[in-house]
User: Which sequence fits this backbone?
């Protein structure tokens, strides 16, 4: 009696394994056959990629958006970053209290887009954007100093783009002294 149950369980395990492999192969075959569909378009034909941005999910965590005018240089985002890719340079303001942001740098070669830097910010000056195509030819292009970007990007009104990052590396002085100026 016991051996019959073991044999029946063994047969069921074999059936389950063959069924699972067959189901997986069917999914693979179905997607493989879709590649030969004559009405199928390429990615760039479907999304018109360079001209129009690709649609992303509502909770997509792309390249950061940063509002330089509201940042109080509290270092909470840099402390929360698990890979230490955020560097904040600040100076104490001579008149009044607080700090002046002289540099807000994110090294995207280290960033893992976890959004842990967004939550601790007390003034909500950093948040995740929808830009995903910041490509560059060198590692230097992946290091972005938000304090040297043009005003519409530094204030969080426009998205980060490779052209603005490249032009920001030419600028010698920061474009904005901080929220207390």
Assistant:
């Amino acid at each position: 009696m016991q051996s019959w149950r073991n044999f029946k369980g063994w047969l069921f395990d074999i059936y389950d394994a063959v069924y699972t492999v067959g189901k997986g192969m069917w999914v693979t075959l179905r997607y493989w056959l879709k590649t030969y569909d004559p009405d199928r378009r390429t990615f760039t034909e479907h999304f018109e990629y360079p001209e129009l941005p690709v649609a992303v999910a509502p909770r997509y965590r792309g390249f950061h958006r940063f509002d330089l005018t509201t940042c109080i240089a509290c270092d909470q985002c840099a402390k929360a970053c698990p890979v230490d890719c955020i560097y904040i340079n600040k100076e104490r303001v001579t008149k009044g209290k607080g700090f002046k942001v002289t540099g807000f740098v994110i090294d995207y070669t280290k960033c893992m887009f976890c959004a842990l830097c967004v939550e601790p910010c007390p003034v909500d000056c950093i948040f995740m954007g929808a830009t995903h195509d910041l490509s560059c030819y060198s590692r230097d292009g992946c290091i972005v100093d938000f304090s040297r970007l043009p005003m519409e990007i530094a204030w969080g009104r426009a998205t980060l783009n490779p052209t603005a990052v490249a032009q920001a590396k030419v600028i010698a002085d920061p474009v904005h002294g901080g929220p207390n100026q």
Remarks:
- The chain has a mean pLDDT of 81.
- The beta strands are 64-66, 86-92, 99-107, 126-128, 143-145.
- The helical segments are 2-34, 43-47, 76-80, 151-154, 162-168.
